[in-house]
Fold:
Amino acid sequence: MPENLPQQLNSHQKQKAPIWSGLFASKAILNRLSSIGIDLIFPPRCAGCGHIDTHWCADCQRDLDLLTFTERIEPKVPLEAVAASGWHMDKLREAVQALKYENAREVARPLGEKLARCLSQQNWTIDMIAPVPLHTKRLAERGYNQAQLLAEVVADIHNIRCEAHALERVRETQSQVTVSGAERLVNIKGAFTANKTLIDNQCVLIVDDVYTTGSTLSACGEALILAGARAVYGLTVSVAGYSITHKKEIVDEYHH
Ligand SMILES: [Zn+2]
Structure:
């Protein structure tokens, strides 16, 4: 399905990546080259409906545009405010899943535009955008950070700088799918650090794909505040498994 060549690690990532991560990088490159070969035989299909010859079709875009709902989520300390562009269901869920697990990087554009519209509805003052980072190992396996792709679209539309390395994931965490409730906070706590030079005295917007309990945004927020951030906000494409006020049963698929 993908047509893009493997994403090159930048110099910062090269410095941080341990030697063994080269094995995963090689695997990612082979997978990608294999996918390019498959694309020659099988044309791309829409990640939302399977329509041939496009990665994201006009019908699915129309469905996405119809979801105009913006959810304000009660922020966890130390975030000032958090918003999501919709519930993690139907077309929005399919789009996030495709971006995250099916290598459909093209879907970052329509989802990022949705995030940008969601941000326009907030009265937040933002100096810079920081995507939730992946651990180096997972970045090498996937070949890209979906949160970074989303953050770059929002940054581009709002003309705000995006710092992909403002936050670093210093500890690999157990998949959030396999832990629940309060364990999530313990699992993720202390997993991030922030770059003081970039962060000091800045109002930072953290961008992620899915919001569940807020543990990840909270842990990122703590790292940013420790690094001197003036204020921290959160913006996610969808909100899942968080239904205290709306009493909706939504499958928790949060997984970095
Ligand atoms: Zn479609």
